[in-house]
Amino acid sequence: MDDTTRGRYEKSRRRKVLFMLGIGIALILIAISVLGVGGIMISPLQVFETVLHKYFPGVFPPADQPYYEIVIYGYRIPRIILGVMTGACLAVAGASMQGILKNPLADPFTLGLSSAASCGAGIGIVLGPMLFGAFYTTTYDLFGHSVSFQWIFMVLVAFAFGLASAMLIIMLTGKRPVSQSTLILTGVVVGYIFSAILSYLKYISDEAALKDLTLWLLGGMWGASWDAVMIVVPIGVVGIILMWRTAVDLNALSSGDDVARNLGVKVAPLRKKVMILSALVTSACMAFTGIIGFVGLMAPHMVRMLIGNDNRYLIPASALFGALILVSCDAIARYVIRPSELPVGIIMYLVGGVFFMFLIRKMRGGYDI
Known about the structure:
The chain is mostly helical. It is built from 14 helices and two strands, in the order H-H-H-H-E-E-H-H-H-H-H-H-H-H-H-H.
């Protein structure tokens, strides 16, 4: 590599690192600023006083209202952490699935994986109490926080159904090259199958279970709690790291399956690994949030437009950008009709729908994303 080429490479690398640093700082600032947003509005000054008084009670005075600490630490911090992890997991799953399938429209939502995971979680909501009785509400102490068997069961069933969806798509499309439209159509059909099962669950549910299931399917952060954080964070962090470690192989795969094989990439196992990891992180998040669409589609494309296709930077940048999108949309959902709140899934459908139309228009015009 000559000096000119090396200089260009270093300049490009610095630009990508600075972009990720900027998104990370923006995410931290947004996460802190929205701690005061919700049914109970808390000023930024009161937020800082509450946080500082908790850790330095002898130095900083308490906030005006004693319940501010309960609101911030009991509800909003777990909610923001869950939003960050969900946005990051969905974005990384989308970027990785686009890489292995070489399809710019692939993500957990468009390929039906979200519907399958939601079907599994719906089974947990409707049939869990019937199957396990009182044991369903049993809680376990983990690092000082209670984790209920209900959430563990929902994550496991959601993952099983999400994995089944991923394997079904691979089985139907993996033996021969298929067009992008065929792949997306396959995902839509698979999603319809699991949506049919979910509709049947609605039909047989009693009034209480139907209300819980309908509210959960709208997509929201109502399941945010410290026990949710204790489950989602380890699964999400490990899954993101494992998918990021496939970045070099994904870069090779972008040149074609034959080129990747000549470079030593095991293409079929790589696709299965990424699909399984995508199913795992997506299912873990959606067991607590319901269906949240388009994050896995928007974040990787926006990042790709700004820093390029190198998955070594695309995957972590997509994680940060996806977290930023979801935390921001959740803050909007809490603010627009306060003291009540909109399901964040509604906000994401609106934003994602507009972006999806923009993406299709660009692709029809020959724009290479």
